Amino acid sequence: MFDLGWTELLVVGIVALIVVGPKDLPVLFRRVGQFVGKAKGMAREFSTAMNDAADDSGMREMSSSINKSLKAATNPVGTAMDGVKSAASSLTNLDPESETGKLAAEREADRKKIEASTARAAAERKQREATEALAKAEAAEADVAAPAATKPAAKKPAAKKPAAKKPAAKKAPAKKPAAKKAPAKKTAAKTAATKKE
Asked: What is the pLDDT of residues 18-37, one digit of tens each?
């Protein structure tokens, strides 16, 4: 009805503070609150009276049927599923004294037994797998511990040390070309003679 935001209410409050004054402002707000409360009460009474009149004339049933038909038109799948759910609920509400009720009770008991046995078998399987895994872990630990105790420690190959760099040798002076082969023979003979000594 009234589209007042916080900014509009703040402007109204400031104007009221200026026009009315700070002394009479609480009295003004109290009277405005009482007026708004009376207006809400009257609106509530009016809506209650209109609802009662609609109930008396059968308008509510008509509006609910119109709402259902609109819902069915806008969402046919949802409406169909609602029909299936209501039909299924009538099938599950069985008289326990009838043959169908007794059969349903037997089937429910069988279902519970099957679930219990399946759960028990799953628990046993998990227990068995856990013990097998534990046994494998213990065997692996024993295999690791046994060779370490019986075999001597294997020697690791010594790491190669990097060779120290030698200073670069000076180039030898260029040799004179040998004109004769005789001096080479003499040097060979000298080295042989020194070896004999």
From this structure: 998 888 888 988 998 999 99
